[in-house]
Amino acid sequence: MTKRICLVHYHEIGLKGKNRSTFENQLVTNLHRALRDFPVTDISRISGYIVVETEDHLASEELAAAIRRVPGVARVSLAYKCGLDEGEYCAAAVRALGEAGDFASFKVHARRSSTTYPVHTLDMNKIVGSVLCESFPDKKVDVHHPDVTVVVHVVQGSTYVYAASAPGVGGLPVGTAGKVVTLLSSGFDSPVSTWMVGRRGAICVPVHFSGRPMTADTSEWLCQDIVDALAPSGTIGRLYVVPFGERQREISLAVPQSLRIIMYRRVMLQVAERIALLEGAKALVTGESLGQVASQTLENIAAVNEAVTMPVLRPLIGSDKQEIIARAHEIGTYDISCQTAPDCCTLFMPRRPETHARMADVLAAWESFDHEGMVADLVESVEWRDFPQCPSYHAPKGALREHHRDLAPGSGGER
Ligand code: ATP
Ligand code: MG
After folding, report:
1. Which residue of 43, 184, 262, 345 sits 20 to 30 Å from the alpha carbon of 173, by its own alpha carbon?
2. How does pLDDT run across 272-294, given as a tens digit for each residue?
3. Same-domain check for residues 34 and 160
4. 185: domain range?
5. CATH number for the domain including 299?
6. What is the reported pTM?
7. Nearest CA to ligand 1 atom 18
8. CB environment 202-231: b (16+ within 10 A), e (fewer)
């Protein structure tokens, strides 16, 4: 019986020995979680691919699209799975080519991963090719630069036939690169930087600093929407929100105006680092891009960075705004980030922020308010929401647990 399935391709570069099966098992686990709203009956590994089968044996384009957004997936083909019977796989090839859209030329590419199958691939090419030529008399065979390639692949007692194939997001399965805490605003950059480390296999725990109670909580809702847009790919474990408005007011009263932003950022990084330690995360991530705004000069990056010992990753440091915007479109966060909302960044902004801070001035300002007490209080006041799409996320067992207001809809903390 011929079934329509999704064939998942992944890059094997650098995946050898034990590493490789860890990678594959994690990808299978992540796919199970990402596809739980689809009628999927089986997700199994076969010789360098993963096969996703559905109850109705009719895998859909929607299913393929959901698979494509899962990190670690290089490509997804909507394929026909049939037996080893020539008539059956030739018929599947006719169907596959018929669904390939507009094309003028094609070729057949036969492969055998099971050597027990007696027909040579050159003969399979000829057999399938002649059936396709009969069925598509106005199309040309072009073995060098075909518009469409019909792949006929014999693996472990089955034949997989496909012509339609589209790229996935690539990267590595989430859970194979540890955990990071990402600093998330509702702007364009930090959602993209969060997505980028998630695509490289990191479990992301975003932290958003809100201007509440000095501003409305709109930025928090935008951040929740952003995280909802990223979550189906399985990269998000938990979103933390830190109400920061009151503390910003204290800072703005205590330090020279030009150094306010640097002080806010140092406190933000220290709070994020404390959350990271509780979470067992190994790095912090920001959306900074060199020179993009006043706070992103080398001097100011150094002045902020000095507040923490954990590595701070900046995946966008060399990116132009246009590239970041293009990516934001792709990952579905652009429209959300277009909606401006006051957050802690727009609160108590100096008229002339320092662009080339001197470390001595920074450290003097830093000592002029009780930053330690402030960071400890802010960590105590965090609120959070968990995202079940990330199977590798494990919540911290430590102090955070008793003191939070849950952001999840329907919980006591709903706003
Ligand atoms: P973005 O587009 O991500 O808001 P930006 O271009 O506005 O970035 P900045 O305001 O200088 O640049 O912020 C630099 C980085 O600091 C952000 O990318 C983000 O990682 C972090 N950050 C800024 N504001 C917040 C916030 N309210 N909560 C959490 N992190 C923040
Ligand atoms: Mg911003």
Report:
1. 184
2. 999 999 999 999 999 999 987 76
3. yes
4. 179-410
5. 3.40.50.620
6. 0.91
7. 287
8. bbbbbbbbbbbebbebbbbbbbbbbbbbbb
